[in-house]
């Protein structure tokens, strides 16, 4: 897809990868950028800078997603590219409380389902439409230290796969963005040894990789190229891969602050 003269919606656009996507896509001269986020002040500033439309939206709310889609379609006629980028990370394992699991699930998984539910009918009528789903390398591999994030990102990737498999023959395209650690508010205060063994990329680098994949209509977007090899290792010898991840977990545990002393 060529983004020029297209109507593009980006969630989680106020900061991090979403902000970088908005700034990079703006240079491709889309017909309109619609930027959505729950953080409205910084969103408004960015929209003014880019000449975009700002929409307050909690992506964990289906009503908010429907309103975002309806507002865009009523104003611009249709949506060419929907970037489901908003996401949250909460650390913890099985002890994570149910409310936190539900919050992570709503934002990291259900938001993509709500978006597809709202946008697909019009896209299918037109015989074209594109979804960029930020799924994370955690969706291909796992996330040390966060059960809720790992589960939700696996599900987000599965959602992206299903949409492409089910609706690809009807003109629907999907790209799944799967970076490792990125320099955003989510990783603030960490370093590469904790947030990602292969170091952190800037949000701008991730946005560039996403744009390249969309232009090629490529499903899997791997800003950290090492992830492809890790994923292949996982498929080729699952047991060996788990053993390697266990050793990495031991290193991760040593880096975490000790409590209870």
From TrEMBL:
Gene3D superfamilies: NAD(P)-binding Rossmann-like Domain. GO terms for molecular function: oxidoreductase activity. The keyword Oxidoreductase applies. Residues 6-180 form the Ketoreductase domain. The keyword GTP-binding does not apply. Pfam families: adh_short. InterPro entries: KR_dom (IPR057326), NAD(P)-bd_dom_sf (IPR036291), SDR_fam (IPR002347). Keywords: Oxidoreductase. Belongs to the short-chain dehydrogenases/reductases (SDR) family. This is SDR family oxidoreductase.
